Amino acid sequence: MTTLYLFVFAQSHDEFRLPELSSVAELNGIPYTLPLKPEDRDPTRPFMVIGLGKEDHAQILARRCILIKFVSVYEFYGQGSTYEELHAANRASRPLWEKFIPDTSFRFLVTSYNHKIPQSRQREVIESFSYMDFLGPINMKNPDITCAVLEEYFDTRGTTRSKHQGDGNFRQVFFGRLIEEGTARNLIVKFDVKKRSYFGNTSMESEISLLMANQTLASPGKIVYDPFMGTGSMAYPTAYFGALVYGSDIDGRQMRGKDKKSPGVIRAATQYGVASRIVDLCTFDVTHNPWRCGELFDAIVTDPPYGVRAGAKRLGRKRELSDRQRQLCEEHRMNPSSDDQPYIPPTRPYELSHLAADLVLLARYLLRPGGRLVFFLPTVTDEYEEVDIYTMLCEGMEVIANSLQDFGSWGRRLVTIRKTTSEKYPSPTFEPIHEPKVDHVPAHKDFREKYFQGFKPKEERGASKDSSTTPV
Amino acid sequence: MVRLITHNLLACHVKDCNTNNFPLEFKDAQIELRETEFNPEFVRGIIPKLEWKALVDTARELGDTTLPLELPEMLDDDFLKNLHHVLLEIHVEDGVMICANCKHVYPISNGIPNMLLAEHEIG
């Protein structure tokens, strides 16, 4: 039997709410139903009434979803655009709450979104529920049950208004009983980068890394891989949820840090009690990787460098050497002098749209069937089109979520791709042979150049910048 | 780190080094044993991915003889615990890994192997 529950979401990252809910539900095998009317399942609204089979399920979701707020899941008794409608619905829900009438201690909360309700009206609202006839004692500290009235107002930010203006003029009012406070939001503080013993200037903020970890369906017994490990931001929450994590990076210094005794990533993992779940760290270029076989990982999670803080690099040279230089290199290699250890191989830039397409091919090779690739793709807001994502897809890989974090003229999209095929594919060659199948240039192409030119419209940018399309 | 599970999943990837490029041989290996939580499901699930002979040989080389030469048909708890120990609790902290075929030396420092290739080793 389906019971309705009222979900209250945190006031951030609205595009990430439903993908996260869907991932955590899938991970725990929880079936759920969204509201029928499109306006009721608009993810930008803070409240949503979702159907679930069991109260336990509501608890599981509230304990794992980062975006379910502290007053999170309510057993849903009714809603309405006026209090008359709400009370009518609540009276009809009597079978759900009549068991609390005789001797349950309780409290009532009246709260709102985009508005502050004056105290006098809060009291009025509570008194309007007197027909429920709760006989138990009122207890504000430790009640057996908490009932809450939640008014949702339209966004009036940026307009001048007098105190309490528009009070009672809400879009919708909801009523329910608190079942579980969302405890997962506390993890944002736990994984706060500022309190981490090791981080760098490319470290990912904790809330987003937790969301990414949820998108990977991290849980005990799984192996997750980050091919652009850096300072390991995604590894900690992923390992915290029980998965084993592999990390690699072309630049080992990011994973090691300056401390000579133990790698920085391991120190930070130790702080969170998950060091033993970081299986190994390894320095290599993912386009020349030593993985012996495919279908190894349950998920790949990564924040690829896109050229603003750190540029993506791969092995190779920017420019071909002249014959003379080549000869010198050869001679030097045959008779190395003792003081040039360790050898640092030359690298060349790795253009973002190539990297993204390669990453999907690599994931198809390295993921087990059904495994997920979760990564951020930066993009130019004005130029982004839905098809951008499809320029990097390949057979057997399917986009299941694509959520924008908007920074104004640019943004980044958290893309979740599932490997739908169980066919075996060879390791990708990483050569730029997979030029877009469709004749379309995605907005994330040459992102670095666009960023440093301040995202001028295409015409102004001119034809000068096409350098990174030519393979070097 | 460089646990034996990792060692069993990595092969030499120098250009045109395609035969006898696995397993890499440990040399001057500094070993540390570190306890890791035991998850029988994980161990069972990883078995199809392992090269058994390479794993047993490497473990014996490093002084652990608990694994049988042939993968047993019955995967009882004792066996899984031994396998768990070999895969996840033996860490090679320093030393090198050498490719038997092309002799490329992959150094390990502070538990992190450097598997970057030189210019002439990539295509």
Automatic annotation (TrEMBL), chain A:
GO terms for biological process: methylation; tRNA processing. GO terms for cellular component: cytoplasm; tRNA methyltransferase complex. Its EC number is 2.1.1.214. Gene3D superfamilies: Vaccinia Virus protein VP39 (3.40.50.150). Residues 195-315 form the Ribosomal RNA large subunit methyltransferase K/L-like methyltransferase domain. It is found in: Cytoplasm. Residues 453-472 are annotated as: Disordered. It holds the Pfam family UPF0020. Residues 5-182 form the tRNA (guanine(10)-N(2))-methyltransferase TRMT11 N-terminal domain. GO terms for molecular function: tRNA (guanine(10)-N2)-methyltransferase activity; tRNA binding. Its main location: cytoplasm. It is an enzyme of class 2 (transferase). Residues 453-464 have a biased composition (Basic and acidic residues). SUPFAM superfamilies: S-adenosyl-L-methionine-dependent methyltransferases. Keywords: Cytoplasm, Methyltransferase, RNA-binding, S-adenosyl-L-methionine, Transferase, tRNA processing, tRNA-binding. Belongs to the class I-like SAM-binding methyltransferase superfamily. TRM11 methyltransferase family. This is tRNA (guanine(10)-N(2))-methyltransferase. It comes from Crucibulum laeve.
Automatic annotation (TrEMBL), chain B:
Belongs to the TRM112 family. Gene3D superfamilies: 2.20.25.10. PANTHER family: MULTIFUNCTIONAL METHYLTRANSFERASE SUBUNIT TRM112-LIKE PROTEIN, UPF0315 PROTEIN-RELATED. GO terms for molecular function: protein heterodimerization activity. This is Trm112p-domain-containing protein. It comes from the Eukaryota. InterPro entries: Trm112, Trm112-like. One of its GO terms (biological process) is tRNA methylation. Signal peptide: none annotated. Interacts with TRM9.
